[in-house]
Design brief:
CATH superfamily of the domain at 2-166: PAS domain
Bound molecules: adenosine-5'-diphosphate
Distance between the termini: 36 Å
Number of strands: 16
Order of helices and strands: HHEEHEEEHEEEEHHEHHEEHEEHHEE
Strand order of the largest sheet: 2-1-5-4-3
Radius of gyration: 54 Å
CATH architecture of the domain at 2-166: 2-Layer Sandwich
Shape: rod-shaped
Strand content: 15-25%
Structural class: alpha+beta
CATH class of the domain at 2-166: Alpha Beta
Length: about 500
């Protein structure tokens, strides 16, 4: 049990650590991916801003050139405007807030709107006066860029201009972003979070993050979306799947290993118990006939038995117990030879009937003593069968010994030898206590004894049937049992009639 815990605990710890590090690795990969996306977004935003600034600086520069040379010259300014498609409209306002350009309005409504715009630009740009830098001003949803120019006569002026959104999208955003960001989708979002520009459709894409533009496009954002065919992510997912599979296999191995180890330990414990029982049983089995022999021997030696028939009876008891002792010792020795792989079989054609009768002879006294009814049926004209006569005789003796041992009040024994299905069938039947069905397969295992009190109360070591099975299999045969509790049992040793299938020396 402790060994099992010692195996399972570290294995579970290793598995748990594996799981945690896998999750951490996945998380850090995700973080790295976001970090890369952030770098990409920042770079893209800078590129857009640079492109925008370049166009607008060029435009302001041209306006400056015009007003420096010709003051507020509408025709020249028109030409500059026409040369820069990104700039949609231009307003020039002097220090007193008067709109100097344009002077002619397209319509009265436009005039009002433009005047209003000029006023607002003037108000909002008050701080810009004298500083000479540029600033972006958001006015009623319209973005105006405001810069200072110096006119020849009118002095310093505020030049305010608005961008054309279509041109912005086409000439600046698309042109700057076309070559950037493989594996991800770059998109520009307006102040409402709506995409103004995206290289491909964003329907299924997952937004990773968005960074704000610094100045040129206030409240707009550069967003990065994971493409559907994001290779990095697919690689990570694949790796995770591989690790997961390995992890599951590891867990499976741990579970199977634990179960196997647990069963092994249980088997070993059971075996150790059976071995301990075996030693106790054999010692007991050796002691009982020895004390009987000693007691009867001493009684005879002291000359206390006067009548000859009783003396004869005592001699028989001594012989019977001595035979039982040698059978037991032979069983144990044979068993140890089998366990050590040293048991040899000398298989030669043997007559069956004499073997059966010789084996039974050793049991004549105990059978008569316990008033057993014995029926022997040996089929006539049985052929000689290849076998190790000593081993088969021993196996038969074990079956007879068991039949006597496990009989109750109905003392009847049937011994049969015949040819059945091309095999020699040697069977021993009793009307004894029988064996429960569930135990029938196990009784041939070494040391195994049926755990019922009526079995346990009888002497036995649990190796008799293991030997019988070994003998049968060494001859290429088998041993079978038919039994029902309370009705009796029939054990049949089946040996092939022809040599060749056996395993001599097994
Ligand atoms: P044992 O020395 O205990 O008899 P065996 O290997 O000969 O060992 O038999 C194993 C077990 O099989 C016995 O303990 C007994 O429970 C059962 N068994 C064997 N033969 C018989 C039988 N003829 N009738 C009932 N039970 C039997």
């Amino acid at each position: 049990m402790l060994a099992l815990v010692a195996i399972v605990t570290p294995a579970m710890i290793v598995a748990a650590l594996g799981w945690v590090s896998l999750r951490q690795w996945e998380r850090s990969t995700e973080l790295l991916r976001r970090e890369q996306a952030r770098d990409m977004a920042t770079m893209a935003a800078e590129k857009v801003e640079m492109a925008l600034r370049q166009i607008e600086d060029r435009f302001v520069q041209r306006v400056q050139e015009v007003v420096a040379a010709r003051d507020v010259d509408a025709t020249a300014l028109e030409a500059v405007l026409a040369g820069e498609p990104l700039i949609r409209s231009l307003y020039l306002i002097n220090g007193r807030g008067q709109l100097l350009y344009p002077r002619h309005w397209r319509s009265p409504q436009a005039a009002n709107a433009d005047r209003d715009l000029a006023r607002r630009v003037g108000d909002a740009s008050r701080g810009t006066w004298g500083r000479g830098d540029r600033r972006e001003v958001l006015m009623a949803g319209q973005l105006c860029v405001v810069a200072m120019v110096n006119a020849r006569d009118a002095g310093p002026l505020l030049a305010a201009f608005a961008r054309d959104p279509d041109v912005l999208r086409r000439d600046v955003l698309a042109a700057s972003l076309a070559s950037l960001g493989s594996g991800v989708i770059l998109a520009v979002l307006d102040e409402h979070g709506q995409p103004v520009y995206a290289r491909t459709a964003l329907d299924q894409a997952e937004r990773l993050l968005a960074v704000s533009f610094r100045q040129s496009l206030p409240q707009w954002q550069m967003a990065v979306y994971a493409g559907v065919d994001d290779a990095t992510r697919a690689a990570v997912r694949r790796q995770v799947a591989v690790f997961m599979a390995a992890f599951i296999v590891l867990c499976g191995v741990i579970v199977v290993g634990s179960v196997v180890t647990w069963r092994l330990i249980r088997r070993e414990t059971e075996m150790a118990r059976l071995k301990a029982d075996f030693v106790a049983n054999v010692s007991h089995d050796l002691k009982t006939p020895l004390s009987v022999i000693r007691m009867f021997g001493e009684t005879l030696e002291m000359g206390r038995v006067a009548e000859e028939p009783r003396r004869q009876e005592y001699y028989r008891v001594i012989t019977r117990e001595a035979e039982r002792l040698s059978r037991l010792i032979e069983n144990v020795l044979d068993f140890s030879r089998i366990e050590g792989g040293r048991r040899r079989y000398d298989i030669v054609p043997t007559a069956v009937e004499p073997l059966v009768r010789e084996t039974l002879e050793a049991f004549v006294y105990p059978l008569a003593h316990q008033a057993f009814k014995v029926e022997i049926t040996v089929a006539p004209d049985l052929p000689e069968v290849p076998m190790d006569a000593h081993a088969v005789g021993q196996a038969l003796a074990n079956l007879l010994d068991n039949a006597i041992k496990y009989s109750a009040n109905d003392r009847a024994l049937g011994v049969e030898a015949c040819v059945e299905g091309g095999e020699l069938a040697l069977s021993v039947a009793d009307r004894g206590i029988g064996i429960p069905r569930a135990e029938q397969a196990r009784i041939f295992d070494k040391f195994y004894r049926v755990g019922r009190s009526d079995t346990q109360s009888r002497r036995g070591s649990g190796v008799g049937l293991a030997l019988v099975r070994h003998v049968a299999e060494a001859h290429g045969g088998r041993v079978t049992v038919e039994s029902s509790p309370g009705a009796g049992s029939r054990f049949t040793l089946r040996l092939p009639l022809a040599a060749g299938r056996g395993v001599p020396g097994a």
